[in-house]
Design a protein that fits this description.
The structure holds two protein chains of two kinds. Chain A is mainly α. Chain A has 13 helices and no strands. In chain B, a hairpin with a 2-residue loop joins strand 9 and strand 10. Classes of the chains: A mainly alpha, B alpha/beta.
Chain lengths: 316, 264
């Protein structure tokens, strides 16, 4: 089977869609179910990417790939989870405004540290040397395999989130988001729940960051801006924060349409690609957020339907 | 009859001791109780005029509002003492101390069944890795949930609670599913029709007969006179009187400060 129709642009675009879908699904657990507005997605994702990259490139491992990749990715995931523990502890008892400020501040701090510690991270110059944990031939083939692996990881996240909706844990998260005081009166430790949710979601974001590092093979602090958080947020809100498939539908309609259709297939002037398109992308995503929140606050798929779900699981 | 002299003698049912408790807002003392024990009788009524501090006292017991000073302790029938005022509010249910809400509270995105399963589910099943445990939780609790749903006449448990009465009932059933050893009910029958009020009273009686201590704050005084074994009268933040319903009902202070001359 040949994949000649898959050019490099399309693979990169699809990878971007898959990556943001994964992040939006994790954000769905936080924002959609538990109503924690995490604006620091890029911070956890970035920690995963940079910890992975630094370990992979700078440490002289006595073994090669794929073990080198696995060890670095596991450490990156754990470090992102630890960052989630710290941020989760800080925000556990804060209101929405507090959560917003802390998570945004955290993401900014990650970018500043990555920039300032240039002897380790490469700073503004960036850092190369990353590679695929396998070599099956041409670069395109490696990219395609990596896209498939990343898609499988995101599909696993999708399955987990889908199961969470059908589990006592999901109900617990929804209760914390809907009425934390009432949940506490029922004996639920809401702070601990939020803390663990942050640890798990942040660790998974870190893993996705590490996987992104492999795909781009060059770490650039420009990736640590608001773009990825905004993309995940815009996609999730457009699709519907409370629905499992909201993240998938929304990201396909935002990142998919922009990164694949507009960037790859519209005959745009070549000089736009360096400056104008990234700015246009952020502006369009921001505008999408405003329009959706004004006219369809529950997104395209609407609010969750626990009544339908309960009938499906337990009958009437 | 004066509450301050009540001693905390261990009994067959749990009690709550309130000692030296003071709570004030903006300099105004709203609760000031020297020494009182709740739960000496199976069902106790707490009455008093608006602003007497009844609801604040309930919140202080549940630690959803912090004390200025003093201690509130649970005295389990097995002996020992658990200082509730040191515990976080979510720990109360673990000690068997449960309270219904005066103001209607609900989880707007959860159905009636969801809400009851949430109350009944053990914490071990609500962990991030237990994503296949829904059927287990349902199987463990469906009988008791079905019992209450049938008893109170919820038509479709997979729907959302819509009316204020339904939400109020749901709040009470959630409390019952927590299997309280000490149940505080804050105006449980407010807004309920007579037949459901009777059903709530029946459940409370059954619960008390099974060993649960019940303290009920209620403005429907017929509920108090008919249901309670003992009544405590609160005014201006203090516990003024306690006694059997008949003696409290005819007490001069209660008539003057609360009931009015025409009530007896």
């Amino acid at each position: 089977m040949t994949f000649d129709w898959l050019d490099s642009f399309l693979i990169t675009g699809l990878f971007s869609v898959v990556m943001v879908t994964g992040l939006a699904l994790l954000l769905h657990l936080q924002l959609g179910l538990t109503r924690i507005a995490n604006f620091g997605v890029v911070g956890f994702w970035g920690i995963g990417m940079y910890v992975f990259g630094v370990l992979y490139v700078k440490v002289d491992w006595s073994f090669g790939d794929p073990y080198q990749f696995l060890v670095c990715a596991v450490i990156a995931t754990l470090v992102s989870g630890l960052a989630g523990l710290l941020v989760g502890w800080l925000i556990a008892d804060l209101d929405t405004d507090g959560v917003l400020v802390v998570t945004l501040g955290f993401a900014t701090a990650v970018q500043l540290v990555a920039t300032a510690q240039d002897d380790i991270t490469g700073g503004a110059r960036g850092m190369g040397g990353l590679d695929f944990p396998f070599d099956i031939g041409k670069v395109k083939d490696n990219e395609l395999l990596w896209l498939s692996i990343t898609t499988a990881v995101v599909a696993a996240i999708l399955f987990y989130v889908w199961r969470v909706h059908r589990s006592p844990y999901g109900r617990h998260l929804i209760a914390v988001g809907a009425n934390e005081r009432l949940a506490r009166s029922l004996g639920k430790s809401t702070s601990r729940t939020k803390l663990w949710l942050f640890v798990i979601a942040s660790a998974a974001m870190g893993l996705l960051g590490a996987m992104n590092g492999v795909m781009v093979r060059f770490l650039d602090i420009g990736n640590l801006g608001i773009d990825i958080t905004l993309a995940a947020m815009a996609g999730l809100i457009l699709g519907g924060t409370a629905r499992v498939w909201g993240a998938v539908v929304g990201v396909f309609l935002t990142v998919g349409v922009f990164d694949i259709v507009i960037q790859s297939y519209l005959p745009l002037p070549r000089e736009w690609y360096t400056q104008a398109i990234p700015v246009m992308r952020e502006a369009i995503f921001g505008l999408t957020l405003i329009i959706v929140l004004l006219f369809r606050p529950y997104g395209l798929l609407g609010d969750m339907r626990r009544d339908t779900l309960m009938r499906k699981i337990h009958g009437r | 009859m004066v509450a301050d002299t009540v001693s905390a003698v261990a009994s067959a049912r749990p009690q709550i001791r309130i000692k030296g408790v003071v709570k004030s807002y903006a300099g105004r003392v709203v609760v000031n109780i020297d020494d009182t024990v709740l739960g000496a009788s199976p069902i106790e009524g707490l009455i008093g005029p608006n602003g007497a501090g009844k609801t604040t006292l309930m919140r202080l017991i549940m630690h959803s509002t912090g004390l200025d000073r003093g201690t509130i302790s649970l005295l389990p029938p097995t002996g020992g003492e658990v200082v509730l005022s040191n515990q976080s509010s979510n720990r109360m249910a673990h000690h068997g101390v449960v309270k219904s809400n005066q103001v209607i509270m609900d989880f707007d995105r959860l159905t009636i069944l969801d809400s009851l399963l949430l109350a009944a589910a053990e914490g071990a099943y609500e962990q991030p890795h237990r994503i296949f445990s829904e059927k287990t939780v349902y199987k463990r609790h469906k009988d008791e949930i079905r019992h209450y749903l049938d008893f109170f006449g919820f038509a479709d448990p997979t729907a959302f609670a819509l009316s204020a009465g339904e939400k109020k009932l749901l709040d009470i059933v959630r409390c019952l599913l927590l299997k309280p050893t000490f149940l505080l009910l804050d105006e449980p029958t407010a807004g309920l029709p007579e037949d459901l009020t009777d059903k709530v009273m029946t459940v409370v009686r059954e619960l008390a007969a099974a060993g649960t201590s019940v303290v009920i704050v209620e403005h429907d005084l017929n509920v108090i006179w008919n249901l309670c074994d003992e009544v405590l009268f609160m005014a201006e933040g203090s516990m003024i009187l306690r006694g059997d319903p008949q003696s409290i009902r005819s007490h001069r202070t209660v008539v003057e400060k609360y009931l009015g001359e025409g009530h007896v």
